[in-house]
Amino acid sequence: MARVPGPVTVATTVDATGQRWGFTASSFRSLSLDPPLVLICLDKAASTHEAFTSTDRFMINVLRGDQSDIARRFATSGVDRFADGVTAPLELGLPGIPEALVRVACSLHQVVDGGDHSILIGRVEATYTGDGAPLVHCDRSFQGLTDNTPRFATH
Ligand SMILES: Cc1cc2nc3c(=O)[nH]c(=O)nc-3n(C[C@H](O)[C@H](O)[C@H](O)COP(=O)(O)O)c2cc1C
What we know:
CATH superfamily: Electron Transport, Fmn-binding Protein, Chain A
Shape: globular
Helix content: under 10%
Bound molecules: flavin mononucleotide
Low-confidence stretches: none
Distance between the termini: 27 Å
């Protein structure tokens, strides 16, 4: 799987006490068009697992090519991932990254058992899309897509 490129996203939520939670995730995928569902997989051992499986909503921030520092921060244990105002309350009041390439705000539709991970299925409630190139994770490193990469239409 290390050779399979994936998007680099930061998932965020807020708990009942107002505390913000977030983690870097490359497991973000679309699931269904009708109803509009997306999924993300979360390690059951992660410090964020309880918050994300008991929340009623969460946000996926898809990072741009120049945001690998944010990806590293939200994958680091024992630090204040929300320091320095990296997020602001955006769609649904959830912590969003203002310069993200895409934001998908979801209500929690279902939590499905997936071995040592939980599969969080979100129903899309609000979206934001910006311009630019995404950050990609492949071969255990962050990579960018250059604008001169040939593009082939898929349909
Ligand atoms: C590029 C990248 C992708 C990741 N994708 C996921 C993922 O899809 N699901 C997941 O549970 N953890 C993923 N992680 C790990 C988490 O970001 C985080 O490091 C882990 O949950 C441990 O955090 P904790 O200190 O909150 O327990 C990824 C880390 C990186 C660097």
